[in-house]
Design goal:
The protein is mostly helical. It is built from 10 helices and no strands.
């Protein structure tokens, strides 16, 4: 794919993301994306065959962008606690960004899509998050920053808390104080220094 095609594809995904944020997944049509992009229907079909394919690519793009921002923010001499606090700060920002999130669209997509098509992407993301968090907690234990006997169990718990906070943010609403309270609870359980979580 040439550079122009790569840029066009990226533009389509960025515009489609806005449409999915606004309408969820179920209500979005290829026509909506064509109109948002200001391109012809045929131009859209050169790159994507349906809204499901576009949505999967939007999720991949968003995940990669989040990973890039996080990776760029980590200092070379960062400790496990520093990395965890940075991660939590980024998660808090995401949780409080209620009007600019794909959460509703993601759940609609997964509730209506057949298992083969969705390829258990959410489960893979969750499991990947658990593995990363487990390594980070274990590193903190080795460095004497954290106290934890079951790093994998704690990592799973951590990911379930974040998932619950994300759903709460979209359904009943969540405050900055509520996010801080949950983060502090986890950090206290790990034996980490409290004031860094603020």
């Amino acid at each position: 794919m040439g550079e122009k095609s790569v840029q066009k594809r990226k533009y389509i995904l960025e515009m489609a993301r806005k449409v999915f944020v606004e309408k969820g997944f179920k209500k979005v049509t290829m026509k909506d994306i064509v109109e948002a992009c200001g391109i012809s229907r045929g131009g859209l079909y050169l790159y994507f065959s349906d809204t499901g394919q576009i949505f999967l690519e939007v999720m991949k793009m968003e995940s990669q962008e989040a990973d890039d921002v996080f990776s760029e923010s980590i200092a070379e001499d960062a400790t496990a606690a520093d990395i965890l606090f940075l991660f939590l700060r980024e998660q808090k920002k995401e949780l409080l960004r209620r009007n600019d999130t794909l959460t509703q669209a993601i759940y609609e997509f997964y509730f209506q899509s057949e298992p083969v098509r969705k390829g258990n992407m959410l489960k893979r993301q969750f499991d990947s998050g658990v593995k990363i968090m487990e390594r980070l907690i274990a590193m903190g234990v080795e460095q004497g920053e954290f106290s934890c006997e079951d790093c994998r169990g704690m990592a799973r718990h951590f990911m379930f808390v974040l998932e619950g906070l994300e759903i709460s943010a979209q359904t009943i609403g969540i405050t900055s104080e509520a996010v801080d309270r949950e983060i502090l609870f986890i950090m206290k359980f790990l034996g980490a220094i409290e004031d860094k979580a603020q």
